[in-house]
Amino acid sequence: MTDNVVKPFTEKSGECPDAILEQAVGQYEQVLIIGWDKAGQLEARCTKGLVDSGELLRLLEKFKLNLLAGEYEE
Question: Are the C-beta atoms of residues 8 and 72 closer than 8 Å to each other?
């Protein structure tokens, strides 16, 4: 995995999840998607390379640390 992280919040993102997903097409080798479905339930999906729970936890913790450190602020 690289340390190059695209900011998750962009002006082009808007409010539409479909727009964010469309922007990601062809950009990533592995992905983890976490969100609220239309019924209000927390859902997560990932590519086969991330099915190991340890790897998923490492990815989430890395994101959390970057978020807390202000890495995604404009």
Answer: yes
